[in-house]
Design a protein that fits this description.
mainly beta
């Protein structure tokens, strides 16, 4: 497998909106952006590394900024 190009979340987050459909896409919540940044699929999706993730709440790394939060 290759490197992972997405993050897969354990569960949907409130900003993703209504994820009750079997699959769909979600967009950036910044009104100046509105860019598609990921998708969900309750049946699952395959990561670029080859792993199968189900259900899949996938955020494409290249579409978002990564901010590291320092914890104690």
């Amino acid at each position: 497998g290759g490197l992972c190009t997405s993050w897969f979340l354990c569960e949907p987050l409130p900003w993703m909106g209504d994820v009750s459909a079997p699959e769909g896409k979600f967009v950036c919540t910044n009104e100046r952006c509105g860019e598609k940044i990921g998708s969900w699929n309750w049946s699952g999706a395959q990561c670029s590394c080859g792993a199968w993730v189900a259900p899949a709440f996938q955020v494409v790394k290249s579409k978002v900024d990564e901010v590291l939060i320092k914890t104690r």
